[in-house]
Structures are given as structure tokens and as C-alpha cells.
Amino acid sequence: MKSLLKSTLAGAGVCCLLSFSISVAAEEINVSSSAPKADISLKLEVQHAIDKGIDWLAKAQTPAGYWSQAEYPALTGLALTGIMGDPSGKMKASPPDYVVKGYNYLLSNVKPDGGIYGKDMPNYNTAVSMMALVSAYNPSYEPVIRKARNFVVGLQSDFDQKGATDNPYDGGIGYGSKYEHSDMSNTMFALEAIHYTKFLAEDKGGGTEALKKLNWEAALKFIQRCQNLPAYNDQPWASDDPQNKGGFIYFPGDSKAGEMELTDGKKALRSYASISYAGMLSYAYADLKKDDPRVQAVFDWLQANYTLDENPGMGGDGLFYYYMTMAKALTTFGVDTLTLQDGKKVDWRKELALKMLNLQKSDGMWVNENGRWWEKDPNLVTAYSLIIMEILYRGL
Q1: The pTM is what?
Q2: What is the Cα–Cα distance from 209 to 142, expressed in whole angstroms?
Q3: What's the pLDDT band for 204 if we cut at 50, 70, 90?
Q4: Could you please report the per-residue DSSP string of 295-311?
Q5: Helix or strand or coil: residue 267?
Q6: Are 385 and 27 in contact (CB under 8 A)?
Q7: Domains, in order of start, for the chain
């Protein structure tokens, strides 16, 4: 990787490879780069909250170097990504001992097949751990990242007739291992890790591990098959009713938000916001532009259902995952304001920053009172929240 890793990441203007600047997002996806006037006071408050969150995670680390659960290195990977994204840059300049210990723990979970996992869920754990390793800006991690990338690419689903997207799950990626279907969340994490390690393919001198290529056409087909948009989704359940059109579900035929009966007596699988932002973000990784009808359809649904009081369609379930996918997706597509159904313009960064400040506990952690998807774990939710706040900081 030599100097390529540092030059690529520094040139991209990214925060933990997630919160890249509006100017870079605009250049990459061809959207307007006009940013709102900086809010210095709010930025200082956000930085203070980040400092407190990092301090809390430093104290919450176990003596063995991991956070929360030893068998799921993704939890440690998220914590490290949040810590290394500190806008002050001090973590990258001089990582403290607990950060070094955390990375050593991640490396201890590297398997001969290239995956980075413990008990199960190999894709989720590997993809998230990859992002943490890239966030370290450490060229010595390149061989591990390279093998991990190939491992994730190798998990892309291809059921039934090989090479054909004849199965609804083809092209996506699931948890891996015993889990036999793809899903939108795991696909998003996998595509994210693959997207942010594209620099490896440019490393002409490097790597003994030849890089495998993801089938992006098949991946795009799977993403479409998770969207309520019959014009692009060939699955019979896809609905264009006004309440669901453009939004996403978890995987073809299954919505965690359940189903609803339409006025004509038909059933529709309900779109919900967190996974819709994951779908929107996945379209970005598949190189779709902001004006693509698929992107515009999900963006329209998300604007129409915007709120920070809940994860629309899911209530309190996955609330902080919702905030994180929102911050990533809207930043990626260079969105500064949202236009609500009543015509009101919303500065979503400011509203989300204020919401996050009010949700932070006095000791520096964040946690969801709703335990769905592990969000009663303050280690996980504090890591999510640091990533969110660091993305917001750079846009304020």
C-alpha cells in the first residue's frame, strides 16, 4: 500500500471513511456542493460531545482489548471507527494504547479464509472490521484488508442457475455462514467496505492477493428487489401505493415493518426508514447518481416520512442505526436540506445534531431504551453516535 493508502484517504477528505466532505461527495456523484454557513457554536458543542463519547468508550474497553462481546469483533470495529474519526485528528496522529490494543484484538480474529469474525455473522463482522482497519491509516494492515475484501466479495449470493439473477436473493450479501439469504443491511455494510477499499485495485505495486471483482450488476438487481418500485423491481409484492412507493424493505418478500392492507384489498410490504437509507446508500456505492429515478424515489419517500422522533415504520426499533444511515446517505448525496410534505425546509444536520446532544448521557455514552437490534448496548450505540456526530461536524 506504501503511500497510496494515506494519500488516497487524505485526498478524499473523509472522516472514518464515512463522513466525506460535501465537495468530495459532489465530485464523486455529480451533485451541488453548496454547503450551509458554518455554525461554529454548534460545531464546538458537537466536538465536546465527541470528546465525551470517546472518553466513555476508552473506559468501557475490556482488558482484553475488545468492546462489549469478544465473539463479535464488529462491535470493536465500530468503536474503533468512531474513535479514529475524531475531527481533531489526534487519534490518527498518535493512537493511545487502548486504541492499539483494540486493533490487536481485531487482528486476533483474522481467519485463514481472510474473514474477521468470531462466533458467526462473518460478513457483518468482516465488513465492519475492514472499515476500522482502513480508518487506522496503517499501511501494515493492507494484506489483512486485501484478504478480507476478497472474503466479503466471495460471499455474494448466486443461488440456482449460476451467473443468472434468477433467485430474488442473487447479487446481495447476507450475514454469511448458516444464514441462507441476502438482506439489505448486510449488503450495505459489504458494499461500503468494498467501496472504501477501491484504492487497493489502484495499488500497482502491491499485494500478493489478487483482488476478486464483485458482480455489481447483480448487486444492483438485488438492491432494486428490496425497493417498493414496480418499475424497477420484478418481484410481485412490489407496490407503488403512496404510503410505500420508493421505500425499502429488509429483503425480497420480508419487511421488518410488516405488511398493510391497501384500499383495493391487496397487501403491501411496508417500507421503513432505516433500511430505506441503507438502500439509498447502497445505490451510491453502486455508482447511481442523485437524479436516477431509483434514488429519487427513495429520497422522496424519506423526505415525506422525515422525523427524528422515531425510525419511521419501526418506532423506537433501530433508532440509532436509523440516524447513522441517514447521516451517511444524505451526506453522500450532498443533501443540505429536506423539503417536507408541507413545504417546510429542514436543516437536517442541525436538527440531528441537537437531537444527538440531548440524547447523550451525562457520562458521555448514548443508549437506546429500546433493545431491538442490540441497541440497549451502550458500546454499540455510542459507537454509532460518534460516527454520526463526526459526519455532522464536518457538514455544520
Answers
A1: 0.91
A2: 10
A3: low
A4: HHHHHHHHHHT--SSSB
A5: strand
A6: no
A7: 4-395 (1.50.10.20)
Instruction: Tell me the per-residue pLDDT of 108-163, one tens digit each, with 9 for 90 and over.
Output: 999 999 999 998 899 999 999 999 999 999 999 999 999 999 999 999 999 999 99
pLDDT at 179 (0 to 100): 66
Hey, what's the cell of 341?
410534505
d(CA 182, CA 378): 28
Helix 122-135 × helix 184-195 angle, to 10°: 30
Contact 333, 287 (CB under 8 A): no
Q: What is the DSSP string of 332-393?
A: HTT---EE-TTS-EE-HHHHHHHHHHHHS-TTS----SS-GGGTT-HHHHHHHHHHHHHHHH
Q: What is the identity of the amino acid at 19?
A: S
CA distance 388 to 369: 18
Query: In this structure, how many other beta carbons lie within 10 angstroms of the beta carbon of residue 325?
Result: 25
Q: Mean pLDDT in the chain?
A: 89
How far is 389 from 324, CA to CA, in rounded Å? 9
Amino acid identity of residue 362, one-letter, is S
Identify the pLDDT of residue 1. 40
Residue type, 218: A
Q: Which three cell numbers stand for residue 228?
A: 417498493
> Which cell goes with 76?
470493536
Query: Residue 304 is placed in which grid cell?
Result: 415525506
